[in-house]
Amino acid sequence: MEVKQNNWKVPWSGRGHDFTQEEIAVVVEAMNNADPLTQGRYQVEFEKKFASKFGLKSAFAINTCASALELSAVLCRIKPGDEVIIPAHTFAVSAIPFARRGAKIKWADIDSNTFLASRKTIEPLVTSKTKAIVVVHLYGAACEMTPIMELAKAKNILVVEDVAQAIGAKHNNQFVGSFGDLSCFSFHTHKNMTTLGEGGMLSVRSPDLQKVTPGFRHNGMRPFTNQEEYWKPAMTNVDFDWENEWPYNYCIGEVQCALGAKLLDRFESMNEKRVTRAVRFKSELSAYSEMKFQEVPNGSTTISHLMPARYSGENFGKSRDDLMKLLAFEFGIKMAVQYLPLYRYDMFKRAGFAEAHCPETDYYFDRMVSFPFHYGMSDDQFEYMLDSTKKALRMLRG
Ligand SMILES: Cc1ncc(COP(=O)(O)O)c(C=O)c1O
What we know:
Elements: H1 21-33, H2 41-53, E1 60-62, H3 65-75, E2 83-87, H4 96-100, E3 104-108, H5 119-122, E4 130-136, H6 145-155, E5 158-162, E6 170-171, E7 174-175, E8 182-186, E9 200-204, H7 207-217, E10 221-222, E11 237-238, H8 254-263, H9 267-284, E12 291-293, E13 307-311, H10 320-330, H11 346-350, H12 359-365, E14 368-371, H13 379-397
Parallel strand pairs: 2-3, 2-4, 4-5, 5-8
Antiparallel strand pairs: 1-9, 6-7, 8-9, 10-11, 12-13, 13-14
């Protein structure tokens, strides 16, 4: 029997997690009391708590991780002709801000076991023009940062960490986001922690960049140095932090910040269900060698944000699409495929970034499936998905 697309037994939910009554009360309290409703005391509290929890030199709350990446490209002073190394296997916005500023994007391949870029895949792309490396901790797993940082230091290259999918993951006991020169975090609805659908954080290491980030985030606003009265020459000044580098408004509201600060109190337990389920899912399916799950790099941990896998059914004359069809239409599990290698997207092709040598990225993408793995999945749904996957794999073995 074919399952109708609107009748999934295991849907793909876009809701990262639920909220406790205490968290809802914090939101209501901020709604009633925040004055102003943006750029106030809740933001200061959220930033302080976030920086201290994840060992960051600074934290600037921001409306999205995409904006954090946009500001990173500005703060790295990317200019036309600079080269930026970015994994080809990531969400498009890891690359867009750097392309917008005229950088030449060099696509890094992934490791076939971790599905992540590594020093080995990055190093061959380094030239004298390399200005920055964007490291993406995908699916919840921390990249092997130590060798990447050693390479970057030796070559004087900036490192931007895209931590959108892996807040709280560690490499060598150190939180990701605390290695790079700049780090970008997301609290988007899908993520393990969300500030009501959108939200982000930008961390910058250097004190000089810390000074200019608030201006870039908020229209270049600052007090006049010659303020005569609080209304003279005007209420606030606007100015460039860097000559001719125009600022943005990427601010986030106080209610979101109040919630973000509160969520940090139970951050570890929010990840627990996903992590426990991921271990079980992978171990129960380990007998099926045609399924390859993400391996966590040496010394790294994962917050198990998503559950991707590579299906190699060639020995049985079967393809990834056979598995997708079976799980989706026979078993009613809304599987997904993520992400088209960026050089295969129309946008990057039209912008001149079609060129890449990323055989593992292509091999992986053409075989990849992503299981629904949202927090709100019931135990029954999880067991059903596990059982159905075993059945589907056996059916495909013939
Ligand atoms: C790897 C990665 N980077 C960046 C982003 C952008 O995050 P945001 O939606 O907060 O802008 C996302 C996801 O949404 C992502 O998965």
